[in-house]
Amino acid sequence: MQRFPCPFCGLRDEREFSYVGDFGKVRPDTKARVSDAEWAAYLYDQKNPKGQSTEIWVHLPCQEYFKMTRDTVSMDVIDAAPLRKPAQ
Ligand SMILES: [Zn+2]
């Protein structure tokens, strides 16, 4: 069983996490006209690289979203960082 690092809780079982999406994806500007193709690309296209990938994940018990870089071949986690500063 794989263990993922939550930046707020530490190492936890992978079943406690959910993939959210590619890191760095930019939502189309809704003030401008957005075509169906642009929306579809934003919603459904994923990079899905072989090798290093940086993604947004959520740790379900604490509901914190964070950035995780991992190798999709070896399944090694390279880095995990919060998207916000942890509460003091
Ligand atoms: Zn957590």
Automatic annotation (TrEMBL):
This is Sarcosine oxidase subunit delta. It comes from Yoonia sediminilitoris. Pfam families: SoxD. One of its GO terms (molecular function) is sarcosine oxidase activity. GO terms for biological process: tetrahydrofolate metabolic process. InterPro entries: SoxD, SoxD_sf. Signal peptide: none annotated.
